[in-house]
Specification:
With 236 residues, the protein is α/β, with parallel strands linked by helices. The chain has helices at residues 22-32, 66-80, 114-117, 131-144, 169-173, 183-193, 215-235, and strands at 15-18, 34-40, 47-52, 55-60, 84-93, 103-111, 148-155, 178-180, 196-206. It contains seven helices and nine strands, in the order E-H-E-E-E-H-E-E-H-H-E-H-E-H-E-H. The active site is at 205 (proton donor).
């Protein structure tokens, strides 16, 4: 047990999905897991363990932003022995070629967060995904016929930028595909502790075109993403 997690040793599977929203964690457990049981409810940041296709898997909400995610990921790795972590979230689109409902599989994550920058002194660390998880995710997305893009994600500590899309001009010029708030910290902690991590996000709102998913379409797209992530998680 930790100050943020009431789970006991062995309550988490080696592979854990990481949505930000606690209710999305519950939705995943209720709709995808067999024999789901709640393992954490501290601060309502819900965690569950069950099975998917007969293999153990867990889901743990991380809250919003890199500081919050870092607490849960640090503890999952160092207190509960988790070795494969897959973020399943939503993101804003930064490239016209990325359409709503498309998946972005983040091979790297640029960030404005001092949480990552300050840890490396004079160096600019490049947070990147685990290659084996990335490769497996791409292969399964192709097999399933899912629309996906592999590229750089932006993990920002700021949701409401005063200058909106203009604040992302530099990273857009360098090919960034989407923006969210967690992946860079996830990749940094995975590298630090020698475990594997991947972030997969459904693009739900385009900052470029203004397109956005309806509530019904969002649910359907998240189903595709979670199924993909679970298949990758149990094969890892």
């Amino acid at each position: 047990m930790t100050p943020h997690n009431s789970a006991k040793a062995g309550d988490y599977a080696p592979a854990v999905l990481l949505p930000g929203d606690p209710l999305r964690a519950k939705w995943i457990a209720d709709n995808f897991f067999e024999d789901a049981r709640e393992v954490n409810a501290v601060r309502n940041c819900l965690g569950f363990t069950g099975t998917w296709k007969g293999k153990p898997v867990s889901v743990q909400a991380t809250g919003m932003g890199q500081p919050s995610l870092s607490i849960y990921v640090h503890e999952l790795i160092n207190f509960y022995g988790v070795r494969n972590l897959i973020r399943v979230g939503t993101c804003g689109g930064l490239a016209e070629k990325v359409k709503v409902r498309d998946l972005i599989i983040a091979q790297g994550a640029t960030t404005d967060s001092t949480l990552v920058k300050d840890a490396f002194g004079p160096y600019n660390f490049a947070p990147i995904a685990d290659f084996d998880l990335l490769r497996a995710c791409v292969a399964r997305a192709e097999e399933a016929g899912l629309p996906y893009h592999v590229g750089n994600m932006v993990s920002s500590d700021i949701f409401y930028h005063d200058d909106g899309l203009k604040s992302y001009e530099a990273v857009i010029r360098h090919g960034a595909l989407g923006v969210e708030m967690e992946a860079a910290a996830l990749y940094t902690l995975a590298a630090r502790f020698g475990v594997r991590a991947l972030a997969v996000c459904t693009m739900t709102d385009s900052l470029v075109t203004g397109e956005a998913l309806s509530a019904a379409d969002r649910q359907s797209s998240l189903t595709d993403m979670v199924t993909l992530a679970l298949d990758v998680a149990i094969a890892a």
